[in-house]
C-alpha cells in the first residue's frame, strides 16, 4: 500500500502548511468523543428494560453479569469503558509512538480510524447480543488504541510544519480532542432520540452512525496529512540561534529520552497538572450543587433540604456548569499553547502551577462568600490550565528533545495521563467520602480536597523548576541522525 | 537555503484551506453554541 508510505506524503514545493491543522482537527474532533461517552450510560443501563433497568439477581457474580443477557448493565460496569479508554490511550501511544515515527502519520491515522470507528461497530454488536465484554473490547480496548494513535498522529508533523509556532500548531489539534465531546454528545443525544422505539433505546443505531461518521472523518484527516522535507522551513523564517538552552536544535533518540531526568520531570509535571484538573472535571456538577444548594435556583436551603423538583432544577444547573468548564478546557488548549510560543514553555507551566495553586486554595473561600459567578470563574480559569497543560507539552518536549522523535517521546509521556486518570478521581472521591464520614457537611466536604489539589500543583511547580537543558551526552551525533533519517 | 527556492502557496491552496477549516469549524461552532445554550442556565 504505497500511498500510505511516509515517502509518498512528503509535501511538494509550494504546499500550504495551513492544510495540515484542519486534517489533524478532523482526527482529534472524532476521537474527542471519548470524553462524551457518559451520554450513553443511562440509555445503556436500560437496554433490556427500555423504560427502566431490569435488575440482575443480587447473588449473581461479576462473571455471570458479564455474560448475562436477561438483566441490564449497572452504571459501574459501563463506567469501566471510560477507564479502559484512558489506560489504552496512554499505553498504545507509548507502545506505538516509535512505529508512528517510522511509518508516518498517514498510516497511523488510518489505523486509528479503523480502531476508533471499528470499535463502535464491535460495541454495536455487543449491544445487539447484550454482551458487555464486547463493548469493553470494542470501544474500550480497540477504540482506546485508536485514541492513542489518533492523538499522537499529527503532533510531530505539526511541530515540523510550524517550527516558528510549535505551541499554537499543536494547540490547534489538541483543542479538537477537548472539542470532540461538544459535538459528539449533543449529536449522540439527537440520534438516540431519533432511533429510540418501544423496543430499543436507540444506542445500537447511534453507534453505527457515529462509527461511520468518525471513520470517514478520520480517513479524510489521515489523507490530508503531508510531512515536510527534512530541511524545510517556512519562507523567510530563520531559526533563532540565541543563548536559550531550553530550546535545542539537536535531537534525542526516543530510546535515550526516557533515560533523562527531564523526561521524568515533565512526566511528573503532566501527571500533577492533569490529576488536579481531572479531579475537578469529575466532581464539577455535584460540587456546585452541594456547595450552593438552593441558592442556584434562588431558594434557601442545602441540597438535601430541597424537594425532588428543586433538586432536578439544581442538577440541570450542575450540568450547565460542567458544559461551561468543557468550553474553557478547549479555549485553554489553544490560548496557553499559543502564548507559550512567546513566553516559553517553562514559564507557561510556572503560571499554571502558581495561578492554579492560588485558585484552588481560594475556591473554598469563594464557596463561603456565596458568589456563584466567582466560584464558577475560578474553575473556568483552572480548566483553561488543565487543557493548556495537554496542549503545551508536545512543544515543551520538542524544545527539550528536538523534533526527530517528538511523536514517540510524546506517546511515552502520555502514560502520565493514564496515571492521572486514576490518581485524580480516586484522590478526590476518597477524600470527599472520608470527610463526609467524619461528619463534615456536604457543602464543605470539598474544601480539604481543594487544598490537596493545590498541594499537587506545588509539587508540580517544583518539578517544573528542576527542568534544565538535556545533557549533551544524550543527543544524537550528525552521523547517527543521518543513519536514522536514511533508514526511514 | 531550502526556503529561498520555496514557491509560495497557490491561490487555490488557500481555497482548500478555507474549505478544510469550514469542514471542521462548522461542527465545532455548532457544539460550542449548544454548550453555551446549556451553560446560559447558570447565569439566569
How many strand units of chain B? 0
Helix content of chain A: over 70%
Number of helices of chain B: 2
Task: Name the shape of chain A in a single word.
Answer: globular
Task: Give the N-to-C terminal Cα separation of chain B.
Answer: 59 Å
pLDDT averaged residue by residue of chain B: 87
Shape of chain B: rod-shaped
Which features would summarize this protein structure in a list?
heterodimer, A: 488 residues, mainly alpha, 70% helix, B: 44 residues, rod-shaped
What does it look like?
The complex is a heterodimer of chains A (488) and B (44). Chain A has helices spanning 20-31, 41-44, 62-67, 75-78, 80-103, 105-129, 132-152, 155-161, 166-195, 203-224, 254-257, 261-292, 308-343, 345-369, 372-401, 406-413, 415-437, 447-465, 478-487. Chain A is mainly alpha-helical and 488 residues long. The longest helix of chain A has 36 residues, at 308-343. By secondary structure, chain B is an all-alpha fold. Chain B contains two helices and no strands. Chain B has helices at residues 2-5, 11-39. Chain B is rod-shaped, with a radius of gyration of 19 Å. Chain B starts with a helix and ends in a 5-residue tail after the last helix. The A-B interface holds A 13-19, 22-23, 25-26, 29, 176, 179, 182-184, 186, 220, 224, 229, 231-237, 316-317, 319-321, 323-324, 326-327, 330, 372-373, 376 and B 1-3, 5-10, 13-14, 16-17, 20-21, 23-25, 27-28, 30-32, 34-36, 38-43.
Amino acid at each position: 500500500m504505497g500511498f500510505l508510505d511516509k515517502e509518498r506524503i512528503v509535501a511538494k514545493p509550494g504546499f500550504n502548511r495551513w492544510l495540515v491543522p484542519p486534517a489533524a482537527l478532523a482526527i482529534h474532533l472524532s476521537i474527542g468523543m471519548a470524553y462524551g461517552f457518559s451520554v450513553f450510560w443511562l440509555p445503556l443501563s436500560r437496554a433490556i428494560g427500555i423504560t427502566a433497568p431490569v435488575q440482575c439477581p443480587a447473588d449473581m457474580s461479576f462473571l455471570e453479569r458479564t455474560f448475562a443477557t436477561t438483566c441490564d448493565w449497572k452504571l459501574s460496569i459501563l463506567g469501566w469503558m471510560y477507564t479502559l479508554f484512558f489506560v489504552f490511550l496512554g499505553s498504545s501511544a507509548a507502545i506505538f509512538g516509535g512505529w508512528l515515527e517510522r511509518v508516518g502519520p498517514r498510516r497511523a491515522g488510518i489505523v486509528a480510524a479503523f480502531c476508533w470507528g471499528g470499535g463502535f461497530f464491535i460495541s454495536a454488536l455487543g449491544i445487539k447480543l447484550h454482551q458487555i465484554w464486547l463493548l469493553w473490547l470494542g470501544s474500550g480496548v480497540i477504540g482506546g488504541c485508536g485514541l492513542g494513535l489518533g492523538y499522537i498522529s499529527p503532533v510531530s508533523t505539526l511541530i515540523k510544519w510550524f517550527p516558528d509556532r510549535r505551541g499554537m500548531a499543536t494547540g490547534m489539534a489538541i483543542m479538537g480532542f477537548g472539542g470532540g465531546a461538544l459535538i459528539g454528545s449533543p449529536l449522540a443525544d439527537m440520534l438516540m432520540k431519533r432511533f429510540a422505539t418501544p423496543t430499543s433505546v436507540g444506542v445500537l443505531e447511534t453507534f453505527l452512525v457515529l462509527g461511520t461518521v468518525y471513520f470517514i472523518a478520520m480517513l479524510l484527516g489521515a489523507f490530508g496529512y503531508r510531512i515536510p522535507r527534512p530541511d524545510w522551513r517556512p519562507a523567510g523564517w530563520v531559526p533563532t540561534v540565541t543563548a536559550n538552552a531550553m530550546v535545542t536544535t539537536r535531537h534525542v533518540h526516543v530510546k535515550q529520552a526516557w533515560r533523562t531526568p527531564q523526561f521524568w520531570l515533565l512526566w511528573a509535571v503532566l501527571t500533577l497538572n492533569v490529576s488536579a484538573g481531572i479531579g475537578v472535571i469529575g466532581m464539577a456538577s455535584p460540587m456546585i450543587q452541594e456547595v450552593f444548594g438552593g441558592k442556584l435556583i434562588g431558594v434557601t436551603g442545602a441540597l438535601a433540604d430541597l424537594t425532588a423538583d428543586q433538586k432536578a432544577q439544581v442538577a440541570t444547573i450542575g450540568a450547565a456548569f460542567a458544559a461551561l468548564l468543557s468550553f474553557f478546557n478547549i479555549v485553554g488548549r489553544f490560548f496557553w499553547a499559543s502564548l507559550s510560543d512567546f513566553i516559553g514553555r517553562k514559564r507557561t507551566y510556572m503560571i499554571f502551577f502558581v495561578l492554579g495553586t492560588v485558585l484552588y486554595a481560594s475556591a473554598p473561600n469563594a464557596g463561603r462568600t456565596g458568589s456563584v459567578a466567582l466560584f464558577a470563574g475560578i474553575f473556568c480559569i483552572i480548566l483553561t490550565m488543565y487543557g493548556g497543560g495537554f496542549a503545551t507539552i508536545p512543544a515543551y518536549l520538542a524544545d527539550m528533545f528536538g523534533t526527530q522523535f517528538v511523536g514517540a517521546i510524546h506517546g511515552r509521556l502520555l502514560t502520565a495521563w493514564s496515571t492521572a486518570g486514576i490518581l485524580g478521581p480516586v484522590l478526590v472521591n476518597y477524600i470527599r467520602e472520608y470527610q463526609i464520614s467524619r461528619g463534615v457537611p456536604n457543602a464543605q466536604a470539598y474544601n480539604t480536597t481543594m487544598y490537596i489539589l493545590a498541594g499537587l500543583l506545588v509539587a508540580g511547580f517544583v518539578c517544573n523548576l528542576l527542568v534544565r537543558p538535556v545533557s549533551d551526552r544524550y543527543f544524537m551525533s550528525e552521523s547517527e541522525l543521518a543513519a536514522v533519517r536514511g533508514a526511514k | 537555503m531550502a526556503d529561498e527556492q520555496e514557491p509560495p502557496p497557490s491561490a487555490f491552496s488557500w481555497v482548500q484551506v478555507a474549505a478544510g477549516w469550514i469542514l471542521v469549524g462548522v461542527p465545532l461552532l455548532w457544539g460550542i453554541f449548544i454548550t453555551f445554550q446549556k451553560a446560559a442556565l447558570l447565569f439566569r
